[in-house]
Amino acid sequence: MKKAILVLAMTVALTGCLEKDVTHTLYIETDESVTWEVLERNVYSSANSPEDREREERDYFERAMAGRPEVLDALAEIGGRDLQAQVLRDRRPYGVRATAHFKDFGAALGGLFEAAAMEAKLTYQRDGDRRVLTIVPLDEDAEPEPGQQDTDSLALLVSDPMRFVLAAGKFVEAEGFSIEGGDRVAVWSSESEDEPERFRLVWTVPAFGD
């Protein structure tokens, strides 16, 4: 089974002519909730005409200044709450930070897969001080349901790689991810040559942090 099957949920073709460097980081907090942070940096339009470039960049900046960049709508669409946005750079190339909160790791990714009609079995288990996230792609030929995988906002949730960061504890096992940062960072990237049948992360949760 190809790793690209699962990454489908995060590789919807982008529309428009805005170029940007995008970083997605999912912070697993000490209470097991998840803060999903999106950084959009070096944002500029590559449209052909100066008028189109100015219009695209103006629209992007005005939405960001109003506290509602498009990426925030994308996070809301997959179930994010406590939405916040911050303009990091107010001139070309622009920069924006957006965050949303989810009740746990499973809810964050589950909302993404559901919105993108991604056929996968996702389980999130608690066993003592161990937490286990398992994702198994089910059907690479599945067709999206009507109305799904047909939204520009989902296209904004594109990242390769995605980083998962523990506020406390450490990752102890990984399949389809690479563990970095002193065992506190797991990176999910479609650039890997490995094509596992499942994706699995196991981490420990200390009673009072560490």
Task: Explain this structure.
The chain has one domain. The chain contains five helices and eleven strands; from the N terminus they run αββααββαββαβββββ. Helices cover 21% and strands 39% of the residues. It is elongated, with a radius of gyration of 18 Å. Strands 3-4-2-1-7-10-9 form a seven-stranded mixed β-sheet. A four-stranded antiparallel β-sheet has the order 5-6-11-8, covered by helices on one side. It has helices at residues 3-7, 50-65, 70-77, 105-115, 152-155; strands spanning 18-28, 34-45, 81-89, 94-102, 120-127, 130-137, 162-166, 170-175, 178-180, 185-188, 199-204. It has 210 residues and is an alpha+beta fold.
Secondary-structure blueprint of this entry?
Blueprint: H1 3-7, E1 18-28, E2 34-45, H2 50-65, H3 70-77, E3 81-89, E4 94-102, H4 105-115, E5 120-127, E6 130-137, H5 152-155, E7 162-166, E8 170-175, E9 178-180, E10 185-188, E11 199-204
Parallel strand pairs: 1-7
Antiparallel strand pairs: 1-2, 2-4, 3-4, 5-6, 6-11, 7-10, 8-11, 9-10
Record the strand order, biggest sheet: 3-4-2-1-7-10-9
* Helix/strand/pairing category: alpha+beta
Report the end-to-end length measured between terminal Cα atoms: 38 Å
> Unreliable segments (pLDDT under 50, ≥5 consecutive)?
1-15, 146-156
Helix content bin: 10-25%
What is the count of structural domains?
1
C-alpha-based Rg, rounded: 18 Å
Q: Mean of the pLDDT scores? A: 80
Oligomer: single chain
Beta-strand content = 35-45%
Which sheet architecture does the biggest sheet show? 7 strands, mixed
Total number of strands: 11
Overall geometric form: elongated
**Count of alpha/pi helices:** 5
- The helix/strand series, from N terminus to C terminus, equals HEEHHEEHEEHEEEEE
